[in-house]
Design a protein that fits this description.
This protein is α+β, with helices and mostly antiparallel strands and 171 residues long. It has 2 domains: 9-124, Multidrug-efflux Transporter Regulator, Chain: A, Domain 2, CATH 1.10.1660; 129-171. Helices cover 53% and strands 12% of the residues. It has 6 helices and 6 strands, in the order H-H-E-E-H-H-H-E-E-E-E-H. It has helices at 9-16, 20-28, 50-64, 69-83, 88-93, 130-167, and strands at 37-38, 46-47, 97-99, 105-110, 113-116, 122-124. It has a 4-stranded antiparallel β-sheet with strand order 3-4-5-6, with no helix packed on it. A two-stranded antiparallel ribbon has the order 1-2. A hairpin with a 7-residue loop joins strand 1 and strand 2. The chain is elongated and about 100 Å long.
Length: 171
């Protein structure tokens, strides 16, 4: 889909699901800019990097979650400061974000700390990897299933032995 030089706006819209009208509006309002080539004037192409595409898709997902464009803009400015990246979109593409119920967006800075991208406030946090807990439960269930299967096999063997003993008149 892309080439080593980057992605055209047409490829960006196909890959991200963002309409050309929305992409153009975001560029004109400076929500995003292509990191490879900014397309100056009519007839010149914008060229986007893969990180740009991931950042754009993240912006779209934030908008779908109800985060207003003004908050997204403010978040991108602060994100650029925190990540020390030259590009807002590249910083967004390499970050872990949490959207709270009040519409705040926080950058996961460490496993114990969140930074609000709207206020700059640092918050202590505890993260629990649910996927790890799910794997642990699945492993326990699988181990128990194997034990149950082994026990069922032993019972079957004992039943067969008992039946054989009855057939032989031993029992």
């Amino acid at each position: 889909m892309g080439n080593p030089l980057g992605f055209t706006s047409r490829q960006v819209t196909a890959a991200t699901g963002i309409s050309n009208q929305v992409l153009t509006a975001w560029v004109h309002s400076r929500i995003c800019t292509p990191s490879i080539q900014a397309g100056r004037g009519r007839g010149t192409r914008r060229v986007w990097s893969f990180s740009d595409l991931v950042g754009l898709r993240t912006i779209l997902n934030l908008r779908k979650q109800g985060v207003p464009l003004q908050r997204v803009r403010k978040m991108l400015v602060r994100l650029k400061q925190y990540t020390r990246s030259d590009s807002n979109l590249q910083a967004l593409a390499t970050s872990r974000l949490v959207v709270s119920s009040d519409g705040d967006v926080a950058l996961v800075e460490t496993s114990e700390q969140l930074v609000s991208l709207l206020t700059g406030q640092i918050t202590a946090a505890v993260f629990v990897e649910m996927s790890q807990a799910m794997r642990e439960v699945q492993e326990k269930m699988l181990a128990e299933s194997r034990e149950d299967l082994a026990m069922a096999g032993s019972i079957l063997v004992l039943q067969k032995q008992g039946a054989w003993l009855l057939d032989q008149g031993v029992a």
